[in-house]
Design goal:
By secondary structure, the protein is an all-alpha fold. The protein has one domain. A two-stranded antiparallel ribbon has the order 1-2. A hairpin with a 5-residue loop joins β1 and β2. α3 packs antiparallel against α8.
């Protein structure tokens, strides 16, 4: 008869619980699986499956009881690590969403907003850009690179032995500027062209008041905007490739920066 002691059960629980907290926090903050449309059971199940997969290769774990102050500190630490890594990827995707917001405002699509299941109003063009970005990320196997980075993070940031370096969190905050820099870089050709058109229509409206903005301006902006979007899509793949490369590189740098000195 096989007998399992309490010490063995506790060791198995720790080997599963600590990585599960980091992985589940990552999936809650990541842009793809962190969406509210994804069922919570899917997020928990995938985090549990990956926890079982990475548990045999983990470094030696601290023998702190789960229901103790040390165990609570480890849970908070792993949650912060997973959340920080998930936010890094979300910032990468938000850059493309910001570009859709800029272009949609210039095209006049701010009147047509998309009501998502979580109750937030989003410009339709921003939601389309978000879907294209996520599909391209899956097409280039970016999710596999992220899973490999997650598994490697347990060697760079061992559980319970290190603590976190505040410089890593500061690096994550500074990376938030990517939303505005990369988003404006993508939207700049379309926004600049539409701005010139809007200025021209404003001058035309002053010289010929019968040519109102609603009768001439909106159709012109929408038509030209759709044409410019067609041209922009031909170079969107190259832009996303560079964005994914820099985002995944930053994810690895973030893990290294969170490691203590």
């Amino acid at each position: 008869m096989v007998e399992v002691s309490y010490a063995q059960l506790h060791a198995w629980l720790l080997a599963f619980l600590w990585p599960f907290m980091r992985l589940s926090a990552f999936f809650l903050a990541a842009p793809l699986l962190g969406h509210s449309a994804v069922p919570a059971r899917v997020k928990i199940g995938l985090a549990a499956l990956l926890s079982v997969a990475v548990a045999p290769g983990l470094p030696p774990l601290p023998q702190a009881p789960v229901w103790s102050w040390a165990g609570l500190g480890i849970i908070v630490e792993q949650t912060l690590i997973g959340t920080a890594m998930g936010l890094a990827l979300r910032l990468m995707v938000s850059a493309v969403q910001a570009a859709g917001e800029y272009i949609g405002l210039q095209m006049g699509l701010a009147f047509a907003t998309f009501v998502s299941p979580d109750g937030a109003n989003t410009v339709v063009l921003s939601r389309i850009f978000n879907m294209i970005t996520l599909m391209m990320f899956l097409a280039v196997n970016g999710h596999l690179i992220v899973i490999d980075t997650l598994a490697a993070s347990f060697r760079t940031l061992p559980i319970g032995y290190s603590g976190l370096n505040p410089a890593g969190l500061e690096l994550l905050v500074r990376y938030g500027g990517t939303i505005f820099a990369a988003g404006l870089l993508l939207a700049l050709p379309v926004v600049a062209a539409l701005l010139i058109v809007n200025l021209s229509l404003g001058i035309l409206n002053r010289s010929a008041p019968q040519l109102t903005v609603f009768s001439v301006g909106f159709p012109t902006s929408l038509t030209l905007g759709l044409f410019l979007l067609t041209v922009l899509m031909t170079d969107l793949g190259r832009f996303l490739q560079q964005l994914f490369g820099s985002g995944l590189l930053f994810l690895q740098q973030l893990v290294e920066a969170l490691a203590p000195l």
